[in-house]
Amino acid sequence: MKKLFFPFVAIMFTITSCSQFTSKKEYDAVKAENDSLRMVQEQVEQEMNQYMSAINSVQENLETIKQSEKILTMKKMSKDLSASDIEQINKDLKDLADLLKKNKEELQTLRQRVKNSSFKISELQKTVDMLTQNLQEETNKVMQLTAELEKKNVLIDSMSIQIAEQADNIKQLEDQSEAQTSKMQEQDEALNTAWYAFGSRKELKEQNIINRKGAFAPQRVLESDFNKDYFVKIDIRNTQEIPLFSSRAKILTNHPKSSYTLEKNDKNLVLVIVDYKAFWSVSRYLVVEVD
């Protein structure tokens, strides 16, 4: 049986030289943040191993359900069924109902663990949704098979009721899956949101985006109550280029130099993000001073 494996992309962290930061304190803070992210990566990998065990168990149960369905389908095609045949069919259907119940419970447990996890992994949620859908499909097949056997007066009444109850329970699980998927999409959008703004020194000062306390003090960026409405909201996965509409530009926020380039388009500069994960790893706000 084919198992599911997740292509876990290692989180890459870039610690740049102190020259990219205004102080050693700032550099140490970024380094500490990257060390913390490495620990998060290890925790994610541990959780993924636990999830894989649960997912493979559900898959194995689904495979058993499919094989049992095939056997029952062949049996129902028989014209003459003995008393022992009928007894075996009812036993097989009971085993199927128990497996459906077991899979539903395992999926509920897995879904709850994913929901409560500190780490939101969209591919994992998609896999749980896919398994829930597969379980619903197999349940529908069992329901159809049950109806056909009822027509042949093969089933005892309690068995039909038991199968129907499992079908209702799995439908509820599918509804929960859709609701959780919607929530995951909202969280995914939030995790991939950033903001950028560019303007002249005067414009940025007017919006409290940059300020200087004293004639000889260093310029500070995004320190006071700046105007957030001045910024453009973007999805970092879909934003590779930002036109700056100026021939001169200076990036004021901290972003690894290897993650972007400033390229000329006619006479104006365009900020080209070559590695969006690295670019936005230090700050989700981008401020560019232009002339």
TrEMBL record:
Residues 27-190 form a coiled coil. PROSITE patterns: PROKAR_LIPOPROTEIN. Keywords: Coiled coil. It comes from the Bacteria. This is Lipoprotein. It comes from Candidatus Gallipaludibacter merdavium.
